[in-house]
Specification:
3 helices; alpha+beta; about 40% strand
């Protein structure tokens, strides 16, 4: 099983977020998530005409941050104490993004294997 989706869609500002990703351990490291992100990014920039696609994660989730950077996302910064977790603890959130001006180069460099001629 796996899940990843669009959220916080703001068409008036031509942006959205990709998140709530969960990948079964049996699919981790197979390229499955990378392919999913390629499809979501391609549709967002090339069909929906977005200017920006955001990703975010806990500042403690270094594995997720590494994965975001591996697919070409730019680390933008830390939002301090912006979420209260279910257990009442505070979470700092690391933000990443892609923007439309950078997408063609990222697509060619990072996602080349998924492009159809």
């Amino acid at each position: 099983m796996a899940a990843t989706r669009y959220a916080n869609i703001e068409f008036a500002h031509k942006k959205l977020e990709i998140g709530w990703t969960w990948i079964n351990p049996s699919l981790q490291g197979t390229g499955f998530n990378k392919h999913c992100k390629f499809l979501l990014l391609s549709f967002g920039f090339e069909i929906l005409g977005l200017n920006r696609i955001e990703l975010k994660t806990s500042h403690l989730n270094l594995k997720s941050q590494k994965a975001m950077m591996k697919i070409g996302a730019i680390r933008e910064g830390l939002f301090r104490k912006n979420i209260i977790n279910d257990d009442g603890t505070l979470r700092d959130t690391m933000y990443f993004s892609f923007i439309n001006d950078e997408w063609p180069e990222i697509k060619q460099r990072i996602f080349k294997e998924f492009m159809v001629s």
